[in-house]
Recover the amino acids of this structure.
């Protein structure tokens, strides 16, 4: 059971690196939605007898992160006619190195944390930490509004991975995480609405600089 | 049951606002709901209901100590909102009013949440419900402010969820049964896994600190308050920040029960003073009087956090400061909104001589300035004095000195901007902007009432309020 679980989390961590290294927006969205699908499958593998709450979380994640949000993002990309090249503040190679270094640091750090025996041999905690870090790098290091949304989503995926530790004991907290998807929804609606109002030409967040000291 | 009505009534009113056909009469829903809410709040304040310890939502002593202030602020802002929306009758106000009422309901729920997960859900919901309020003007600058608010606020809220999960894991690791009410977490006390509690504390402080606007997570504040209408600024600064503050207080009590109270207090002290310092320095530099209010809000959040670091006496003083800050800051935001509308700009490079153009709003703004910079006999003077005393009694001499220095710097910064726009001869183009702004009773009386309330807090503070704040502090620091 743990072997399958770790394989999937390892895959999700690999997708982090893909997201950091790619220079094309569609590829970033693909990596993100693949990660969403993987996260949706993981709760089923956790070895608990499948009650309806766990099934619901898995289904909501699969549909939300794997299908709905990526397709919304693609739609935003089309309506806003956004240039598909990503325009990094932190270059692709430095972000890859940061992400990989972060993943290694997470793996090294986790044995220092007190974990319950059933979690000690899984990649859940290091996977969560590495994914959260990836999200941060994308949030800070990419300039396009849509790629920042992708970064936020990957940050959220990391939090969800961590939440899986608690899915049996405190399902409410994990379910609450679905609300974060709602935030993402608001982000994307913001992009689409703004595009309709034609307030900006490129949606380059570097141009959001009218407000400063 | 009545405490649930505090949540249900505003949410129902929001639904009603969605269905209400007339753009002209819809704003009346605001004061109507505000009146019911304040009435319910006052009732619960004077006859507090018994609280079952395991309840997820209840009007407990901490909610009793803060929620009435939010309710009062909302009521006065709602009154102002009717006149404001009459001026802005060219836009549909349906979504604005829905969002405002939803924010009130969700704030009431957030203040009453006694469950870690529930508290997070309501804070997240308030964050999202406030988005249309910021975007009401529909300008590119408003979009920019909304985007930054969402991005910074969203990241903060995500981190506080991660922190909540860590606290949950601390409980699970210590043999907890998955009960995440604050009462249960506190009774688990030293059984919580220490490393996880500390990780959770850092994440939750950063997360809810972002919502409060503590430095260095305050960057959304100047943009959001600078671009939003005065009424929105007042509700965000007086209501939404207070729910994040009570969240931090509740979490601090769990960390304290786990035996890490000293570390928690130390971080609160440092982050509070740092917020005050950075805000004071920015106040010396800013040239925009609405952004000035935002930095002043950051400064006062710093004061609250400093108070929270000083034990039960400090927490009681902080809760007093929540009241005096909410009401005084409300008066400033509303009068600044008037001046902004009359002058057509918020920069002191373009706005001058407002005591000639809008004499009443300017007078209110100047009085509000003195109130918020803690001149006696207004509320903030007495609440800051209490925090000062708590700080001296706790023996933090250096912190006290820094606290006073920051207050002085902030005073310089605020007076520089306020007198810059109030004095002098009106700029020519300000006179020429077509329709003149009329200082009707509807836009002058609400800030005046708020200032009156601030004065009342300072001069005629009932002993009951004092007891309520002390009771809330006692809830957070249970005697062993």
């Amino acid at each position: 059971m743990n072997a399958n679980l770790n394989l999937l989390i390892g895959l999700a961590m690999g997708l982090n690196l893909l997201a950091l290294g790619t220079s094309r927006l569609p590829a970033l969205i693909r990596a993100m939605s693949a990660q969403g699908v993987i996260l949706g499958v993981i709760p089923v593998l956790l070895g608990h007898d499948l009650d309806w709450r766990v099934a619901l979380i898995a289904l909501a994640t699969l549909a939300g992160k794997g299908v709905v949000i990526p397709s919304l993002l693609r739609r935003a990309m089309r309506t806003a006619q956004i240039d598909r090249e990503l325009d990094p503040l932190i270059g692709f190679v430095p972000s890859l190195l940061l992400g990989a270094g972060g993943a290694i640091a997470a793996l090294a750090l986790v044995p220092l944390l007190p974990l319950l025996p059933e979690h000690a041999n899984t990649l859940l905690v290091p996977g969560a930490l590495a994914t959260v870090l990836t999200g941060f790098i994308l949030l800070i290091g990419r300039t396009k509004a849509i790629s920042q949304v992708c970064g936020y989503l990957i940050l959220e995926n990391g939090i969800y991975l961590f939440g899986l530790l608690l899915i049996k004991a405190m399902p409410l907290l994990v379910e609450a995480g679905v609300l974060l998807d709602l935030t993402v929804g608001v982000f994307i609606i913001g992009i689409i609405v703004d595009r309709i109002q034609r307030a900006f030409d490129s949606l380059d967040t570097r141009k959001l600089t009218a407000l400063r000291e | 049951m009545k405490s649930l009505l505090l949540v249900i009534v505003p949410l129902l009113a929001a639904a009603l606002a969605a269905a209400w056909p007339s753009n002209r009469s819809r704003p009346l829903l605001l004061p109507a709901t505000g009146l019911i809410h304040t009435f319910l709040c006052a009732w619960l304040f004077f006859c507090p209901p018994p609280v079952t310890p395991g309840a997820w939502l209840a009007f407990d002593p901490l909610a009793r100590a803060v929620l009435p202030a939010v309710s009062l602020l909302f009521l006065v802002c709602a009154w102002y909102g009717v006149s404001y929306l009459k001026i802005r009758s060219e836009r549909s106000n349906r979504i604005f009013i829905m969002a405002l009422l939803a924010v009130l309901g969700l704030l009431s729920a957030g203040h009453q949440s006694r469950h870690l997960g529930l508290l997070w859900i309501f804070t997240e919901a308030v964050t999202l419900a406030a988005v249309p309020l910021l975007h009401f003007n529909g300008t590119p600058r408003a979009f920019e402010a909304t985007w930054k608010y969402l991005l910074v606020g969203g990241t903060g809220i995500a981190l506080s969820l991660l922190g909540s999960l860590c606290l949950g894991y601390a409980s699970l690791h210590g043999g907890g049964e998955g009960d995440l009410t604050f009462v249960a977490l506190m009774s688990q006390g030293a059984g919580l896994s220490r490393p996880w509690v500390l990780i959770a504390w850092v994440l939750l402080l950063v997360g809810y600190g972002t919502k409060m606007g503590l430095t260095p997570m305050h960057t959304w504040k100047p943009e959001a308050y600078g671009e939003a209408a005065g009424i929105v600024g007042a509700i965000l600064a007086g209501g939404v920040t207070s729910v994040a503050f009570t969240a931090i207080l509740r979490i601090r009590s769990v960390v304290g029960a786990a035996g890490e109270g000293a570390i928690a207090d130390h971080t609160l002290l440092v982050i509070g003073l740092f917020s005050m310092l950075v805000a004071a320095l920015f106040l010396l530099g800013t040239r925009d009087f609405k952004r000035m209010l935002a930095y002043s809000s950051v400064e006062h959040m710093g004061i609250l956090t400093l108070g929270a670091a000083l034990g039960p006496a400090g927490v009681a003083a902080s809760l007093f400061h929540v009241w005096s800050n909410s009401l005084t800051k409300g008066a400033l935001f509303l009068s600044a909104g008037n001046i902004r509308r009359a002058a057509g700009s918020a920069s002191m490079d373009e706005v001058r001589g407002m005591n000639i153009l809008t004499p009443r709003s300017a007078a209110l703004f100047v009085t509000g300035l003195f109130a918020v910079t803690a001149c006696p006999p207004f509320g903030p003077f007495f609440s800051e004095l209490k925090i000062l005393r708590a700080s001296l009694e706790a023996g933090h001499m250096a912190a006290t000195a820094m606290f006073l220095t920051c207050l002085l710097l902030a005073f310089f910064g605020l007076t520089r901007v306020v007198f810059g726009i109030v004095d002098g001869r009106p700029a020519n183009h300000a006179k020429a902007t077509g329709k003149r702004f009329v200082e009707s009773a509807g836009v002058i009386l609400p800030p005046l009432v708020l200032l009156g309330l601030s004065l009342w807090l300072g001069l005629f503070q009932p002993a009951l309020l004092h007891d309520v704040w002390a009771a809330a502090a006692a809830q957070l620091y249970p005697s062993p």
Observations:
- The longest helix of chain A spans residues 52-79.
- Chain A touches chain B through 39 residues (CB under 8 Å).
- The radius of gyration of chain A is 18 Å.
- Residues 40 and 62 of chain A are 4 Å apart (CA to CA).
